[in-house]
């Protein structure tokens, strides 16, 4: 099968890779300048929504795919970007610590939560907890290396709905395809009429890259109010990310920088100073019901979707791209909670 994938962020890369592995001929159409989200992401994955202490929907299934998919990609691209490492949570209150400890002993939490450890250079007066089955991916390295490796199959261009002709074979410029996968991230909310209406709730996020003398290079990812995690350059760190709704642009702001620095200084031991090297902003393709968009167009049956990964592309991407490939190749039905059809059906009434 010849498949066109629109977008080469985390969603498009993993969707196309799942199809390549099954022997299909994939071409990516991507203009990386349209959205930076995947390339600037912290790249963390973990099965718990730490702010609300909820287990991520379908995380059990998602975790099964993480290691095999990223390891196979590392082997293929000959680069190391996957770092499974337990996240450390710094507690804010004794009540939170007690809640954590009571969860540690009972299913389903016991497979994810345990006691924490001491953290060099950081203040954690109430204590820490550990989240296992978590870690991070250097998404920029993965995506850049992937683009380089598959360069003969990546077309660098802006692609608009009018460029895609369903005849019924799909025609894009001078190429023909049997299927198209839309994976353009939040930008789809602006100009792709094939999506159901009003499904996206884009959320802007900002992140700082830092130098912090005195923090150990092998610091695990830390969750306090934001995350502190290793930087993509050796000896550096990152903190973020902010969440702002209703401002879908990639401009950095002094307010976000201040917010991130103030909260970071609340956990650094006295004497440690953080110096900002870089500030970046991107927009997450979050959805109205906070669940991803996977599936098939109800009328243009050769058009498929992988989008709406919100703040969890690293955790969700490997699983969702495999179930999408199962749908495209074997017509295997999707879990209804992630099927984009839930929105298309509403439009029919
Ligand atoms: C600050 C920040 C921190 C984050 N941290 C994490 C994290 O720790 N863990 C995590 O899992 N997720 C994180 N995320 C979220 C994650 O980045 C997104 O969920 C993910 O990037 C979405 O990937 P995507 O491929 O759907 O979209 P995108 O990353 O937006 O990629 C879409 C691609 O398609 C291209 N494109 C779009 N429209 C067109 C078009 N018409 N023609 C051609 N090309 C087009 C874009 O330029 C881009 O290359 C973070 C996001 C931000 C902003």
Task: Give an account of the 3D structure.
It contains nine helices and 23 strands. With 349 residues, the chain is an alpha+beta fold. It has two domains: 2-41 and 140-199 and 289-347, FAD/NAD(P)-binding domain (3-Layer(bba) Sandwich), CATH 3.50.50; 86-133 and 203-284, D-Amino Acid Oxidase, Chain A, domain 2 (2-Layer Sandwich). Strands 7, 8, 9, 16, 17, 18, 19, 20 and 21 form a nine-stranded mixed sheet that branches. Helix 1 packs across helix 8 (313-330) and helix 3 (59-77) packs across helix 8. The longest helix is centred in the first third of the chain and has 19 residues, at 59-77. The radius of gyration is 21 Å and the shape is globular. The two termini are 34 Å apart. The model has no long low-confidence stretch (mean pLDDT 96). Bound molecules: flavin-adenine dinucleotide. Flavin-adenine dinucleotide (FAD) binds next to helix 1, strand 2, helix 2, strand 3 and strand 16. Residues 7-12, 29-32, 34-35, 37-38, 40-45, 158-159, 183-187, 205-207, 240-241, 282, 284-285, 307, 309-315 line the site of flavin-adenine dinucleotide (FAD).
């Amino acid at each position: 099968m010849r498949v066109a994938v629109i977008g080469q962020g985390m969603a498009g890369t993993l969707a196309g890779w799942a199809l390549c592995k099954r022997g299909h001929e994939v071409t990516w159409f991507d203009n990386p300048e349209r959205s930076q989200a995947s390339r600037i992401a912290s790249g963390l994955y973990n099965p718990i929504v730490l702010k609300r202490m909820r287990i991520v929907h379908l995380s059990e299934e998602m975790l099964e795919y993480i290691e095999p998919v990223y390891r196979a990609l590392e082997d293929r691209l000959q680069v190391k970007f996957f770092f499974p490492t337990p996240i450390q949570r710094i507690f804010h209150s004794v009540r939170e610590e007690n809640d954590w400890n009571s969860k540690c002993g009972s299913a389903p939490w016991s497979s994810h939560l345990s006691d924490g450890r001491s953290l060099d250079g950081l203040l954690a007066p109430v204590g820490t907890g550990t989240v296992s089955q978590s870690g991070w991916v250097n998404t920029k390295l993965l995506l850049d290396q992937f683009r380089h490796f598959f360069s003969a199959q990546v077309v660098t261009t802006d692609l608009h709905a009018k460029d895609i002709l369903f005849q019924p074979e799909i025609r894009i410029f001078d190429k023909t395809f049997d299927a198209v996968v839309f994976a353009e991230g939040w930008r789809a909310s602006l100009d792709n009429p094939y999506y159901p209406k009003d499904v996206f709730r884009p959320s802007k996020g900002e992140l700082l890259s830092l130098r912090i003398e005195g923090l150990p290079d092998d610091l695990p990812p830390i969750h306090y109010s934001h995350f502190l995690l290793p930087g993509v350059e050796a000896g550096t760190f990152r903190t973020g990310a902010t969440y702002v709704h209703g401002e879908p642009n990639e401009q950095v702001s002094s307010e976000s920088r201040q917010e991130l620095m103030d909260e970071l200084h609340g956990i650094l031991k006295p004497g440690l100073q953080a110096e900002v090297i870089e500030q970046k902003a991107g927009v997450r393709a979050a959805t109205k019901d906070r669940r991803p968009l996977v599936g098939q167009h109800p009328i243009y049956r050769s058009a498929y979707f992988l989008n709406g990964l919100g703040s969890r592309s690293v955790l969700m991407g490997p699983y969702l791209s495999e179930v999408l490939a199962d749908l495209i190749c074997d017509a295997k039905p999707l879990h209804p909670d992630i099927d984009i059809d839930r929105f298309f059906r509403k439009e029919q009434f």
